[in-house]
Amino acid sequence: MQRFLIFLLPLLLLQSATAQLFAYERGKCEISIVNVLEGLAQTHLRNLLNPPPRRITNQASLLQYDLYTPLNPQQRQLLQPGNVNMLKNSNFNGKWPLRLIIHGWTGKSTHCYNAAVKDAYLSRGNFNVIVMDWSHQAMDLSYYRVSKQLPSIAQSLAKFLRFLHDNTGLRYEQIYLVGHSAGSHIAGLTGKLLQPARLGVIFALDPAGLNQLDLGPTERLAPTDALYVESIHTDLMLLGNPQADRLSHAATFANWGRGQTHCPNATATEFDFACDHFAAVYYFAESVRRPHNFGALRCNSLRSALKAKCSCSAGQRTCAANASMGGEPAVPKRGIYYLSTRRQPPYGTADGLVHMQLPRPSTILLTRPKLL
């Protein structure tokens, strides 16, 4: 392993630092299958040369905020907390809503799934879209070590949002935080720190389970962290969190939160074993573009969703949806919901109906050719 890392380091240092276009298109975003391996190797080398206990790290200095707007939809503009001149020289518009995307464990702001969400918002009109990068902390094999840093990351993000509010007139209720996996809990912790001000919405895309399963509401995402919190669950087998009623006002279990119909890896930008986990991101991005694509059926309880016992009346296989998942703007609802998806994009049925399907086993050990 050590020899491999020493061989890999020169190749990593040769990567270009120049700004590139960022979009969900071939060659304009980074495929996490490749970059996760590189990032983990870099972190391991850094820890070998400078072990964590000996480092004094300012968490805020490790975060990066990439701004995209209709005026610069693919070329990022960097923002820094406290740097008023940088903010004024950017295309940030305090009259436009802010949608801030937070990646998860082993993530990076330039990964393709973030581009999918960013592009979806900009396709809908005038938005400030910021993709927060916390890859310096996230690229670590130890999820326990990553989890311990989430509160300090949230503290830095809360400070950044106050900076935007104070200097642009942006109202907190105009802010949506969109977090994937561990990013969902960063969003929740940030919402707590901003109170008594209230964020508008938190969308939690397959919020992480793992270490967060044993935490109380003050240490993880909770329904009180924004005016409205919605979670989308797609991976109960491996990385997701089944405790939906403790996390959000409304929770949708796509395909019962188990084997997703397009997996293994129709997107081909993530590891096959994580295809179910990332499905929530791609479903959400589609819902932003087409808010009524994902009709959902309200279940009687969380237990009924976890046991795949939600049903249409009279045992029918198809029935009218009584809510929609995700969307822009968010449409607040309450309760636990089920929906099924198609095998290829568009994933939503877009017919206003819910099509009941039996649970599928996860396909995390299978592979398919890359499509992107």
TrEMBL record:
Keyword GTP-binding: no
InterPro entries registered for this protein in UniProt: AB_hydrolase_fold, Lipase, Lipase_N, TAG_lipase
Record-level GO BP terms: lipid catabolic process
Signal peptide: 1-19
TM segment ranges: none
Short name of one Pfam family: Lipase
Compartment annotation: Secreted
Keyword check for Nucleus: no
An MF annotation (GO) of this entry: serine hydrolase activity
GO annotation, cellular component aspect: extracellular space
SUPFAM superfamilies recorded: alpha/beta-Hydrolases
Domain Lipase: start-end pairs: 63-347
Family membership: Belongs to the AB hydrolase superfamily. Lipase family.
PANTHER family, sorted: GH15759P-RELATED, LIPASE
Protein name as catalogued: Sxe2
